[in-house]
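(Protein data)
===
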Amino acid sequence: MLKLNDASTKRYLRNTLRSQPCTFLLGSGISLFSPSNLPSGQSLVDEVSDLLTESEKGQATYHQLREFVRSCVFEHIFEHYPAVDRIKKEYFSQYFLRGGCNPIHESIARISARCRIPIITTNYDMMIERAFDKLALKNAYRSIVSSSALPLGQHIPIFKVHGCASNPVSIVLRMSEEGLLSGWKGELFENLVAGRTLIVVGYSGLDLEICPAIEEARPASIFWNVLRENDISQNARHLENNAVLSRNFTFLEGDMRHIFQVKKQIVSEKTPPIKPVIHSQISQQEIENWRFDFFNSLGAARSAHNTLLRTYGPISPKKISAVYYRYGRYVSSHLEFTKSVPNGAYAELSILLNRCTHHRNAGKFFSPRISLLMAMRLWSKLSFSHKRKHFDLFQWCIILLYPLRKSDVYKRSAQRLARYYLKNGIWGGFYNLQIELKEQGNIDFLPPPMQAHKNALEGYEQIGNISAYIDEFSRNSYRGVKSKSEFYERMKIAEIFGLYPNIYKICYAALCARKTFFLYERYVLYGKFIHSMSKCEYSLVCRLMLIARGTLALLHLRRKKIT
């Protein structure tokens, strides 16, 4: 890591900009300063998070929940917003067109024009373009938000990955819109990054698609600016640890003004007024539905359940079933699930496929074939409209068929299912699909947004699927020794979100995996174990099974003594 306030670092950067082909990757951090005074993505997330979690005020876990929601990616929060097109036009388009360019924008434009440096940015604003115009360089650049702006000719590209405020339709606001850098976007990104020195400024790296795209493009070297070392994101760390990129990856610690040789800038503390816009666009009932969908996708069972009690609008029984399941109310979950099914075949089909996946993950291959044959037979009896509605289940039938794993039918099904998940914003399903295929050693034919993660824990954590994340941790604890602090940390997360089945699983995993727990710690774990049993039908069934097994063992011993 280099310090930006060091004279030798500044000199080295100046020489790099002059002598090597470079590309700028710019984030919202460059537009915080006066007179731009635009909000960062995090400040928007903080305000919307406060709106979504205000219903939980008074709960013991309110502050932990709010901080956790604030750590979610921006696009995840807006994924279920009911009036996306309106907020793009009435807030993002108008707000991000305000203000003027600051000295950092002007310095970037000046350096870019002098050294012919392409610019990639995730910002919606037009501050870079205004800086070029202010320096009388209007004809030197071309802003790119669609393929119609290609080819570039002699213009310096300003590639706006997430769209531009001047064109509200182009603004990327949801995970399903963010998708992948595929097609013309992927090709352009690779052309602007491959074999060049990438200079990253004002960007956190939290987006799902940018860091994997950098990894795929293979830049010659990377300089990544952070204000402080603890500001480095998990994705940026992953790139640093990449076997190929690590040799030429350098973090630049310090104020970005040292890179662009400008005087100290004043950062605006103004909070973007997004709450009034939201309240003017959607009703309180729609806010509750948005809150419910978000908590449900996050895996926050208690908060989703509390929201459900206040919500009287139409909510899919399938979603309600998912909340009850995570909350440990298995009977209620089953009843709601049956409401969502036009006929019993779909419910049975889901059960068979879940059973098949479970056997496959356990390394058993004979049982899945039986389950799949039964599932395919059920599928053949469903009506065409029903098949269309539950298209993803049919594709899973094909994916899970072990004998077809090498065939073109199998690959086409995997690709179609991936597109279906991406189009509908089902990122958890897409990630599960990748894990399933990765275990078979064949994911070359799938798009790579999550391949940057080396394991499921990292992936589930980033996409915000908390229940899946804790489940994966519990499974991993049997395969490798975990520290006490890791168990307690995950248990705390499970308690915050009211995931009682997960608390039971973590306690059980801890008691089995950690033989060296002190007596007091084992007592605490056992207390949480019993507490989760009182709250959770899953745990109750497990307790009854343990009692039954113990009773049978005692009867067996007694019979032995008698004989």
Remarks:
- Residues 542 and 548 are 10 Å apart (CA to CA).
- The longest helix spans residues 537-562.
